Amino acid sequence: MSKKEYDWNLDEPPPRIKPHSIAKQKVYTEYIKEYIHTLNSNPLIPNFNIVIVDAFAGGGEYLTQDNQRHNGSPIKIIETVKATEKQSTKQEKNNLPLNNNIFSLKRKKPI
């Protein structure tokens, strides 16, 4: 059984984000950017549907080690998709509309 990594309570400051969580965010945000750019550059794709599932989403906000607010993975994914779609629309010839569904899951109790 795994231990609880982070704990969010509405009446307390968000938990401190750990380096492995920041690394996870960097990996998937870069992947999402490249994935959208790659598919949007293909003129044979008539529409662009994307489904993103973050099965280890956690909360939406953390504190860094120097007490700065840091968005959690649900917010990072949404920001990345929106920014990449906007940038892609300006750069790519194809200009596909991006239809996206984003699911962020956080397990409450151990299985």
Verbal overview:
The chain has two helices and four strands. The chain has helices at residues 19-40, 73-91; strands at 48-54, 61-63, 69-71, 98-104. Helix 1 (19-40) packs parallel to helix 2 (73-91). By secondary structure, it is an alpha+beta fold. The radius of gyration is 16 Å and the shape is elongated. The chain has one domain. Strands 1-4 form a two-stranded parallel ribbon. Strands 2-3 form a two-stranded antiparallel sheet.
Number of strands: 4
Total domains:
1
Number of helices: 2
* Residues in β-strands, percent: 15-25%
**Largest sheet at a glance?**
2 strands, parallel
**SS class:** alpha+beta
Short account of what is shown:
With 111 residues, this protein is an alpha+beta fold. Helices cover 37% and strands 18% of the residues.
Which terms summarize this structure?
111 residues; alpha+beta; two-stranded antiparallel sheet; 2 helices
Write the layout of secondary structure elements.
Blueprint (H helix, E strand, L loop, with lengths): L18 H22 L7 E7 L6 E3 L5 E3 L1 H19 L6 E7 L7
Parallel strand pairs: 1-4
Antiparallel strand pairs: 2-3
Helix pairs in contact: 1-2
